[in-house]
Design brief:
2 copies of one chain form a homodimer. Chain A contains 15 helices and 19 strands. Chain A has helices at about 1-10, 35-45, 50-60, 65-70, 100-105, 110-130, 150-160, 170-175, 185-190, 195-205, 215-230, 240-255, 270-275, 290, 380-390; strands at about 15-20, 30, 80, 85-90, 95-100, 135-140, 165, 210, 235, 260-265, 285, 300-310, 315-320, 335-340, 345-350, 360, 365-370, 370-375, 410. In chain A, α3 (about 50-60) packs antiparallel against α4 and α6 (about 110-130) crosses α7 (about 150-160). The longest helix of chain A is centred in the first third of the chain and has 25 residues, at about 110-130.
Amino acid sequence: MLQAALRSGAASRRAVFEVFARHLPGGRRYGVVSGTGRVLDELERFRFGDEELTFLRDHQVVDESTLAYLADYRFSGDIHGYAEGDLYFPASPIMVVEGTFAESVLLETLILSILNHDCAIASAASRMRNAAGGRPLIEMGSRRTHERAAVAAARAAHLAGFASTSNLMAGHLYGIPTAGTAAHAFTLLHDSEKAAFEAQVASLGPGTTLLVDTYDVAEAVRTAVELVGAKLGAVRIDSGDLGAAAQEVREQLDAVGAFDTRILVTSDLDEYAIAALAAAPVDGYGVGTSLVTGSGVPTAALVYKMVARETAGGRMEPVAKRSVGKPSRGGRKRAYRLFDEHGRAETELITTSDVVPEGGVPLLRELVRDGRTVGAEPLSAARERHAEAVALLPLEALHLARGYAAIPTEFA
Amino acid sequence: MLQAALRSGAASRRAVFEVFARHLPGGRRYGVVSGTGRVLDELERFRFGDEELTFLRDHQVVDESTLAYLADYRFSGDIHGYAEGDLYFPASPIMVVEGTFAESVLLETLILSILNHDCAIASAASRMRNAAGGRPLIEMGSRRTHERAAVAAARAAHLAGFASTSNLMAGHLYGIPTAGTAAHAFTLLHDSEKAAFEAQVASLGPGTTLLVDTYDVAEAVRTAVELVGAKLGAVRIDSGDLGAAAQEVREQLDAVGAFDTRILVTSDLDEYAIAALAAAPVDGYGVGTSLVTGSGVPTAALVYKMVARETAGGRMEPVAKRSVGKPSRGGRKRAYRLFDEHGRAETELITTSDVVPEGGVPLLRELVRDGRTVGAEPLSAARERHAEAVALLPLEALHLARGYAAIPTEFA
């Protein structure tokens, strides 16, 4: 595409591309904007070096004039986007890229890869946060997804409300609190469960979390309390009927005065399993597989579509394809959220007009101006924004069941 | 775990960890071993440098003696595994790691992340290959998954039978043939569809693939044939009822003598949609979302479990936890595939004995000896092995419907 457009001269035409979802997959009520910060980071690094150019030349992927263009490539246009952590709904233009066709079309895969992954994980994580009702969630899914996706997943989960992650690289890169517990292998390594618990407490102190389901849960809890007493930080249960097991363990702990020893549960938890444990005496959830796979929705269905371009005459003109069953709306969009008299979100308003609707909160902010990043912010800001945005949704938005978007998208 | 085991002294005990799947998720008939080569590559690079150590020290994640251990870390043990591209079934020990507890337990996340991702993608890709019945498949899913997972997904897809990928980095790193087509934005950029087609053919020659569903398919095909004639390489249809559209386009092309112009289809294809197009005049499939998300099974459910460890007395002893509902079998395994008199695979035999069963083909091969990689091979070898292994399965293994493993796993 780039080579042909360079040859026809159309490559230098101004163009506007928008990132949006035609629908919210999985019957979700809202999507979560996540990955914006990663897009900005990667944009700084998105260059074609000698290694890449040599490959493209040796394999005759593109011609010499295209290689020359790529060698000098640096995005010099503008990007606006929804603030990271904010919510989105069908057709919300969560990122708007403006520049020449050539410089903008090259960003499609980079931007979509990051946003499709991160938004999918954050959207699942946000549902888990709602289901957990204030109890802390630990992200433990690194082993269940690609080794680099795991780091991004931990970031998206923290943005959407997870308290901590077991991924140390995510702790290092993004300042997310890290947490972990021992595995069954640690208990099995020692000559007895008691020896394993002793070793762990000797090294990590009484506040540590002991895994109690390697052999027999009741016996393990007895051993743990005998060794550590009421100062034991937590126990983890990783199998069986977690609610029933937690109830028994709680009674066992309370009977010996270990009222402050917490009970953590893990084992294929998703938002539904978490919700089902609401009445159980559980103090925290470790979530792995279902988090990093988006709990049934591993990709966010976001697309990157050209909505306007310069004509031969130099005028900007809205464009849209007419493909069957894939609606697209031409023209560069503005987006506003409208709230009712109680301050609850009511409508997602998308418009191609410059007129600001009364009471509408503008959702697009400047991220990149003339190729320079101007909209970077710490992950903590996105995390706070997300909690605030969810709190302003109608209550039915927290329903876990499949359904429609929590607020309607209207086009003006 | 590492810190506590270093302190208790158990860290230096010999241990055996095995990677296996307790079941094949999604009712799949077989799993595909993929990622072995990436594990070997990453193992060479798996070190803790100053940056990582400083993070761990500053955040008090581990103590000084653990930091010292990590600073010198280099896996020095042995790894055996199923050959890449081979198949696996429930309980197949697809990778066996032997070393000290400390050096082996550190590899859990690295190995599982790679294998859980790559096996999931390859297993889905293999089903698509079966459904395509010899027609070429192009991997086009980069935009729908994490930016680095996309490169690994292209590798796994090629291993399992995809002809090519649109991911240029995968072409560069793994020598996979690359292919791509123009997007709707390219057509929309130009002042007419004809101008876009002219630009593309001028730059890429008549053998290029023209996208014909931006406005009206029949009109686009007419324009394409008028411009290029019967030498037109291919057209791509990306929306609507692909089978019906392909039929109409084929008739239109044949009517003007463009018998060799191929028809490529894309648009949310998965193995079921591909199978449903078997009778349509389609010459190739581009697959995106469903491939990179494992077509409903985005992670392979592989676990990394310690199955044997050295006792205080220096003897190796099988171990297994007794957690409810999560069966594990202790002891280091050997695995063999048994074939019937027609050469069809019949049984996956797993044993802790050293006795080789009559006619059994051993499935574990040496990958790493004393920390050195000895089992590396080109991706093409894994690709050929995969095609051969599928050809030896019972025919019912190619059923797309949910069901049981194609051959039973037996324990001796």
